[in-house]
Amino acid sequence: MSTVLLAHGSPDRRHAETLDRLRARVSVRIGPTRLAFLEHDLPRPEAVAADLSGRVGLVPLLVTPAHHARVDLPGAVARLATGGADVRRARPLGGHRLLLEAVAERLLGAGHPVDTPALLVAGGSSSGHAASGLRELVETHGPASWSSTTLSAPEPGLAEGRVVIPFVLAEGVLHDLVARFAARAGAPFVPGGLADTESVTALVGHRAAEAGSAPFALQPAC
């Protein structure tokens, strides 16, 4: 069995480098793991397909239910299967409480208490799915001192008195836009992506188990 981690991709090389570190950590835990991208970076799913056989778990490295999670994944599954592999798709990472555990890791690493007033900022989309999904996650599983917004529809004044954290997996274009958002608001900023945390490593392992390409879930499902 093997696992493919499917990411969006970015013109910023830091994005792919961060996700390759995540892939390496996941491989140690669950076995052979490949990385593929929808856009910008290589390899693309069709290039990976020739090296795949048997059952393959596909884990979408997407943290919000935006366009790519809803529209692009079926095509990616089809392209991964062109070499004959039995590709089983897990749910995207978005919606799992371990993403908030990753935020907590980032806060602690930057010297802030977990319950410090924080604003999680995602990329977002015009549909509003990203904003509503992140808001529900934070309201259900996060501390009462945390709030969320997106770059597509930031609420004026929401960053006041809060530490701003980019709700993205890796440094890159979106990460830097969140940094500029924090600077304009005069708010402290916690740099870095969520992929460089133990919580996201565990979450990817769980999703791989859900797809049948890992022997067990590392954390309970949600």
Question: Poorly predicted ranges (pLDDT <50, ≥5 residues)?
Answer: 217-222
Order of helices and strands: EHEHEHEHEHEEHH
| Arithmetic mean of pLDDT | 90
Could you tell me the number of beta strands?
7
* Largest beta-sheet characterization: 4 strands, parallel
CATH topology of the largest domain, by name, is Rossmann fold
- CATH structural architecture of the largest domain: 3-Layer(aba) Sandwich
- Helix/strand/pairing category: alpha/beta
Strand content: 15-25%
Strand order of the largest sheet: 2-1-3-4
Question: What is the 3D form?
Answer: elongated
The helical percent reads 40-55%
Secondary structure tally, helices: 7
Notes on the protein architecture:
This protein has 222 residues and is α/β, with parallel strands linked by helices. The protein has helices at 13-30, 45-49, 67-80, 98-109, 129-141, 173-185, 198-211, and strands at 2-7, 33-37, 55-60, 86-89, 118-122, 146-150, 163-166. The longest helix is centred in the first third of the chain and has 18 residues, at 13-30. A 4-stranded parallel beta sheet has the order 2-1-3-4, sandwiched between helices.
